[in-house]
Amino acid sequence: MSPLDTGTLLLLLGWGTLVALDLVSVPQAMYARPLVAGTVAGLIAGDVTTGLSLGVLLELFALDVLPVGAARYPDHGPATVAAVAAAAGAPWPERMGMAVLLALLLAVLGGWSLQRLRHRNAEALHDRAAALAAGSQPGLRALQWGGLGRDAIRGVLLTALGLAGALLLRAFPPFPPRLQGLLAAAAIGCALAAVAGGAARSAGRGPRLYWLIAGLAAGLVIALGLG
Amino acid sequence: MKTQGRALAFARLFAIQGDWNYERMLGIGMGYAAEPLLDELKTRDPARHTAAVVRSAEFFNCNPNLAGLALGALARAERDGVPGEQVSRLRTALCGPLGAIGDRLFWAGVVPALSALAIAAVVLGAGVWAVAGFLLVYNTVRVSTAWWSLRTGLHEGLQVGGAVGRSWLPWAADRVGPVAGFAVGLAVPLAGRWLLKGLGPQAMVLAVFLAMGGVALSRWGGTHYSAVRYALVVLVLLAAGGMVML
Question: Does residue B101 sit in the same domain as residue B134?
Fold first, then answer.
């Protein structure tokens, strides 16, 4: 496994920051989805296959959650970038389980940081309450740009932490090969549980449930047909 | 309303959640996006302009992709000289419906449907093109919806609620859910097969067992269960146990 050079790490840091901003602040173009974040991170790290594979796996976790308004949800974007950095260049599924473990820890931390950001934005609002009450347009602009700036800082810090974890895992792989295989299988099992559980919850008992079952049947037939 | 102001407001819609907070939620983002739409009041009626800027940044929440409907309608009402209390009432009244219909359409419909179809396409060999297709289709839907929303809001003003009810939105929100259900169902076995390929029978049994256990817990595990929490517990226990035993 070749080391990640400084240029690649800087590109990954930039990409992770953009991805963190996309989740809520700007532009919500869905490149924060793990499938996209992972694929682009794979392109940057020179290992698209790992990027796509981890992107698909972590997207299954992301499909469990509806990112609705004030709800608490994990931030899977920068976490996926870090996971790809941890596993890029290694043969599949070596390092996949530990990359997913790193990603999930970071996703939880990212979700927590989003809550902190929202509280900090509210504090900034209090600081400029008088200006807002007076209809100050510069005050309004300062709040908007301040919020975006704070989210960008959150993204930089979260991605930097993730990349540091990834470099550590690359330098000192903690698990023997056989355990890595089991961890990979466990990560896949949990991801399938996440997407299936989320889909069943969203489907409820209405017509969506029948379409879900029909989709599962069609997927099984195609999967078996692929051999 | 000037085209330049409308274009600027449209661009600002994409950062409508830039200062999301627990007090005003999208309020500041709405105020920032409304700025160019309210500009012509500045010379015509400065007092009204100041009051409109204050109102534009008050509490607001809805699905960000449909915020243009409220933004346009509120700016139109301010321009038409509708009493301030009525503008505030319209603002409050739009939160619930635009949130509910937008969340059903986008977060529970378009996003999972396209994401799951992209996963299926990756498994079937489309590779990065599947990811590019996902981004292209989603953003085409999203950008055109945002443009339609702003235009409809500006055109309808106070009548925007009725216009939403008569529009394509309720129809689409009703139909996209089943499509998402089918697409996610399709993606689950395909993704499982693709990811587990080459891992051996022992790994497959473990994955299927954990998947079934996770689904059961999500059904009967109560409010403490979350998929990420389940995965973290499983992976940490397996790693710790494996390090001791292997």
Answer: yes
Q: Residue A126, Cβ neighbours under 10 Å: how many?
A: 11
Rounded Cα distance between A136 and A95, Å, is 53
Domain tally for chain B? Answer: 2
Look up the pTM and report it.
0.96
**CA-based nearest distance A49→chain B, Å:** 9
Q: What does the DSSP assignment read for A86-122?
A: HHTTSPTTTTHHHHHHHHHHHHHHHHHHHHHHHHHHH
Same domain, yes or no, for B23 and B130?
yes
Chains A and B: how many Cβ contacts under 8 Å? 346
Is B18 found in the same domain as B110? yes
**Cβ <8 Å between A222 and B122:** no
Q: Express each pLDDT in B35-65 by its tens digit.
A: 999 999 999 999 999 999 999 999 999 999 9
pLDDT, residue A31, reads: 97
Residue B177, domain extent? 3-197
- Nearest Cα neighbor of A41 from A92, A6, A79, A74 is A79
Asked if the Cβ–Cβ distance from B134 to A199 is below 8 Å, we say no
What are the extents of the domains in chain A? 6-201
